[in-house]
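Protein modeling request. Please complete all fields; requests missing the sequence field cannot be processed.
Requester role: graduate student
Desired output: 3D structure, C-alpha cell encoding
Chains: 1
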Amino acid sequence: MSRIFPYPLMTLALTLMWLLLQQSVGLGHILLGFVVAWSASQAMARLQPHKPVIRRPGKVLKLVALVTVDVVRSNFAVSRIILAGDRRETTAGFIKMPLELKDPAGLAVLSCIITATPGSAWLEYSPAESSVLIHVLDLIDEAEWVATVKLRYEALLLEIFQ
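Delivered output (162 residues):
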C-alpha cells in the first residue's frame, strides 16, 4: 500500500487544497485534484526525503504558539522601523550562531522560523562547523539574540526531533 500511496496525508491535503482553489466539489475536480495530488506524492517518494520522527508532539503546539507571538511582535517592530523613517538608529548585522541541532527536519523548521520572522533571514548553514549565518535588521545585542534563538526555538526543536 505504501508504494501506491507513499504519502497518504500529503495526497489528501493536496486534493483538499485543489478543491479549495477550484471552489468546486464536482466529480471532475475531485478526480483531477486526486490525480495531481497522487502524482505529487509519487514524485516526492522518488526524491526519498528524510522522514522526520517527532518524539514529543505536545511540544509542537508550544513551538507554534511561540513562533506566532514572535512573528506578530517582530511585524510591529519592523513596521515601526520602516514607518519611523529614521534608519540611523537601526544597526543591521550578521550573526554566526553555533547549533546543537543536527536533524535535517529540525534544521529546516528552524530555518523557516528565522526566515519567516520579519527582520531576520537564515543565510547559510555550515554542517562542518554546525553553525548558521543569520542576518538581523535591528541588531542591538548579538548575545541576547543568540540566546533567544537557542532557548526559544532550538531547545524545543531538540526535544521534538532528537
